[in-house]
Amino acid sequence: MNKTIFDGNWKEIRGKSKEWWSLINDLDLSRVDKAAVKLDKYIVLLQVKYGYTKQYAKEEINKRLEVHEAKKEDILAS
Asked: Residue 16: exposed, middle, or buried by beta-carbon count in 10 A (0-12, 13-18, 19+)?
């Protein structure tokens, strides 16, 4: 996941964040909204809330986005 792709998908990621991670709240997301580099801020958020390593946070973001994109494609295909 690079910063450009993350920023391009931020609205969808933001919308799914509380579903994906129950410890994330609206205040957390508003802080990411204001960040110059949203991906970095989001990774730090996961590190703080869940104790993830930076690498594990990146992997989790990628995994959840892949599942989300696959579901979107299934819906569009039917």
From this structure: middle
